Every structure is written in structure tokens, then in C-alpha cells.
Amino acid sequence: MTDLFWPGDHLAGELMSDRAFLRAMLAVEQAWLDALVDGGIAPAAARVTLTGLVDDDDGETPARQADSDGNPVSALVALLRERTAEPTSRWIHRGLTSQDVVDTALMLCLRDALDRLAEQIAEQVDALAALADAHRGTPMLARTLTQPALPSTVGVRVAAWLTGLLDAATPVVGLRDSLPVQLGGAVGTLAAIVELAGSVEGAVALSDTVAVALGLAPALPWHTTRAPLTRIGDLLVGLCDAWGHLATDVATGSRSEIGEFVEGTGGGSSTMPHKHNPVAAVLLRRTALTAAPLAATLHTAAALTVDERADGAWHAEWATVRTLARRTVVAAAHATALVTGLRVDADRAAANLAAAADLRAEQSTMAKLVGREPESSYLGAADLVVAAALDRASRYRKDPS
């Protein structure tokens, strides 16, 4: 998939694409049919491999017909029933509702996106930890409200990036492993499933079987409680926030008049051959600027959910979470490229520090208050800050959750 409106979109590949969503819906229908047969509810003759009946080119049909029914599931089920014979056609989708298929398929697609993010984050943590350690003693001017403030080190700056990333990344594994199945039938009471299974216990067991088959967490119906989606949205935005902070520092620090940071492979200009633009940082900032409103849409949809199937709020989620997830995956790739190739100009950092106005006024005041001579350095616990970030990175590598 490519998108001229969103440079880098190809880096997300098939994740959260139309094809991925179609395959995920098929996987849900397959797991459900298998569970009905394995549970002795549907006859053994109903078993068939549904995924072989629909290919990627078939996605156009449910996409177009979704305009009539409001979602793509009805058309997909009709297509599957057309292409199967009795008794399979009679048992496909029985007991399910469209929201079961859409919500569970979304969980499958998002799981794949979270897996990709976890891989990228691990690489970023390694790169940032190495950079913080290498420059833990490299002098650098710290600035507040854009102006010179106090002496610091490059290591402290990088440690802040690393800590921000770890704060955002820590929930990834736990959330990935807790993505829930959604199988509640028409109104979330499992009524049809209980009827098919013969008991409440049998219905719950059937749902749990499907969850295990799909690699999702067993769960009772959550279709009117949208926390599973808003939690994912918040996680994705948190990652974009962390990368946006890093990218803003790099973009600012790479200005020619500052020159403390240089992207490993900057971008060019269509008209100015001398340019070395911080393109990765620019694209990361773009994502950070646009991510939060997408998550806000998910929260608005959650708040406006009504009855046992929302009239528009549910429908607003699909493209929103797809866009947010794809853009976050793209941002992850850009962030990895940025931090693994980032270069520090230690000489420029030292020169900027030396050129700043007197930075020791605060130090002199503090020393007088306690009646001591000022220390030769005014770095405080800078090294401790870096060491703490490195220790946390080490623990994250051992247990990302």
C-alpha cells in the first residue's frame, strides 16, 4: 500500500490494510465454524477451509456492499455461503453478529501492529541507551524557554528521550497479550450461542475456544464498552508523543546555528543542493501533531455509544484506529532510523555551552546560602540521571512488560 498524502506509509506494509482486515474477518469466521464442528454443534461435514474461498481481490465486493448494510460482514458472509454447499453454508456465521466479527478482526489486526511496534521499540531502546552511555560526559548547554539555562550533558538529553520512550512503551506487551475476543451475538447476551450450545457454560466455553484459536484473550462481551480500543489509541498516541519530543529536540538541535545533532541520512531539496534536511524528525513531528486527535475520536465514539450497537460511533472507530495504527507503525520506523543514525557534534555542543552567558549565577547563590565555595562543576546528579535511564533500559530488555 502506498499513500502520496502520507510519505512513509509503505513502511507499514499490509498492517491494518483492507487486505489484512478481510483476512482477519475470515479468520474469525473460520475459528467460529471450527468451534461449532469441534463442539459437536455443527456436523463434521460442515467443516471447510473458508480462507481458500475468498482471496484479496474479493475485498471489493464486501467493501461496496457495506454501503448498504453499514458494515462489510453481511456481504462477506453472503459471499462465503454462495461459495459453499450444504451443510457448510447453513452453519457459517450462525450465532454471531456483525459486530462480533468486526471487533474481533480489529483485535487481530491491532495485535500484528503491536508486534511490529515492539520490535522497533526494542531497537530504539538499544540505540538510545548506547547513545546516552557514549555521551554521558559530553558537555552541552541546557536551555529553558528557548534560552541558555545551565550546563548539562548530551547524555542527560538522550536519557530524557529514552525515559519518555520507556514510559510509553511499557504497556505494549501487556496490552498485546490481553487483546480480547468479542463474541456476544446480536445484543451481547450470547442468546443464540447459548441456544446452540445448550447451556450458558457451553456458550462461554465456545467463545473461549475461539479466543484461544485466534490467540486472543477470552472475554465476555464488551461491545458497548469501548475501553479495549481507547486503551490502544492512548498507547499509540503515547508512543507518538515520545517520538515527537525526541524529533523536536533533534530538529531544533540540527539548525545550522546550533548544529549539535545531525541526522544520519538527511533529506535533500528539489532546488537547493546544499540542504541536509532532518526529514525523519520532520515526519515524526507530523505524526505527533496528528495522532492525538485520532485517539480523541475513539474516546468520543466510546462516550457516544448507545444501546447495544451504536448508531455511528462504532462505525467511526474502524478507519480511525486503522489510520492511527498505520501512522504509528510508520513513525516507529522513522524513529528507529533517526536514533540509530543520529550523530552528535560534541565540538559544537561544547562551543555553544562556552558561548552562553554566565551560567553560574544560580550556583553562586546556592553556595552562599550554605556557606560553601562553589563546586568546580555544576552538573549535579546528571550522571545519576543517565545511569538510572540505562538501568531501566537494561531491565526493559529483560522484561518488556
UniProtKB/TrEMBL annotation:
A GO term for molecular function: isomerase activity
GO biological process per UniProt: 3,4-dihydroxybenzoate catabolic process
Segments forming domain Fumarate lyase N-terminal: 87-288
Keywords in alphabetical order: Isomerase, Lyase
Homology family: Belongs to the class-II fumarase/aspartase family.
PANTHER family in UniProt: ADENYLOSUCCINATE LYASE, ADENYLOSUCCINATE LYASE C-TERMINAL DOMAIN-CONTAINING PROTEIN
Alphabetized NCBIfam families for the sequence: protocat_pcaB
Record-given protein name: 3-carboxy-cis,cis-muconate cycloisomerase
